[in-house]
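Interim report, section 4.2 (structural modelling).
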Amino acid sequence: DADVTQTPRNRITKTGKRIMLECSQTKGHDRMYWYRQDPGLGLRLIYYSFDVKDINKGEISDGYSVSRQAQAKFSLSLESAIPNQTALYFCATSDYRTPRSYNEQFFGPGTRLTVL
Amino acid sequence: AQSVTQPDIHITVSEGASLELRCNYSYGATPYLFWYVQSPGQGLQLLLKYFSGDTLVQGIKGFEAEFKRSQSSFNLRKPSVHWSDAAEYFCAVGDNFNKFYFGSGTKLNVKP
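Predicted structure of the assembly:
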């Protein structure tokens, strides 16, 4: 079974609709992240959470919100979707319990979102 | 501010030829550097990482990368490319808070 799962994998929605993307992990990591990927722009950080009570904005948080329901679950919401939010969205996790060991981020399979 | 530049958007190499993908970073402290690969329709898989120590790091699938502090570079290399290496490759730098900054990616095409 995958360690980081995302649902749905694909979603088509209309402008103005509210949509939630969900991420779950079984790695026991404390840190979780949401990115969006656009062609030619790489991955850009939307929000990140270092634990359940610690949520931070990334470089492109406008138009998005998040909820860390538990250590293992981190959801991304688009309150009112717009076409330029059409992108591939990735959830990632990392373990920062040992400073300087600096583990990598582990990525989910992605959610392809289309806003019409 | 932290940033990562991958100067080559697309690269095409022949199968069996050598490969080098360039990555330059901007970061004020000791960088933590990563290379990820994304196959079509897939998520990101870690190829290799550099934290400290030996500046030449070995990764999976026969890839290696060399950290050159003087050039702020972390180029990815492979001596002989296979058709299955066709994918998009991302370089990333991590800061002390484990936030990652990704380059824009390099798409590798492999000619038979």
